[in-house]
Amino acid sequence: MSNPENLKYTKEHEWIRVEGDNAYVGITDFAQSELGEIVFVEVETIGESLNAGDVFGTVEAVKTVSELFIPVDGEVLELNPELETTPELINDDPYGKGWLVKISIADANQLNELLTAEEYEAILG
Fold first, then answer.
1. How far apart are the first and last CA of the chain?
2. What is the DSSP string of 45-84?
3. What domains appear along the chain, each with residue ranges and CATH number?
4. Which CA distances in Å does 27 have to 16, 48, 70?
5. Tens of pLDDT, residues 59-90
6. What 8-state DSSP symbol labels residue 111?
């Protein structure tokens, strides 16, 4: 399992990739492998401003439903439109086409509180 160096990570297994004032959020390769085959993604927080650690949606796998946590304060701008018809993109490409939501970042300083790839791998053991 590889975790790209250009991303930041949470202990709850989300990642964030910053692009300008916005960022993309998804779940890690570890998280998708633990969940198994993902069959549905639900995000009802589009247009809402959330605080770091708030639940922004859920991901449903064959065996379980898991909450998704926003890594930094921000507004949820959009859900990845491809996930509506092909949620398995999260399993196939968790760091690319399987991104979950696009957010605007309210406080970029919060990114410094997130884990680097090396720190995230250390918590995985």
1. 12
2. -TT-EE-TT-EEEEEEESS-EEEEE-SSSEEEEEE-GGGG
3. 8-105 (2.40.50.100)
4. 9, 20, 11
5. 999 989 999 999 999 999 999 999 999 999 99
6. G
CA dihedral 8, 13, 73, 75 (to 10 degrees): 100
The DSSP element (H or E) to which 124 belongs, if any, is helix 117-124
Q: Alpha-carbon distance 57 to 1, whole Å?
A: 25
Which among 83, 94, 101 is positioned nearest to 41, based on CA atoms? Answer: 83
On whether the pTM is more than 0.90, the answer is yes
Instruction: For residue 41, give the DSSP letter.
Output: E
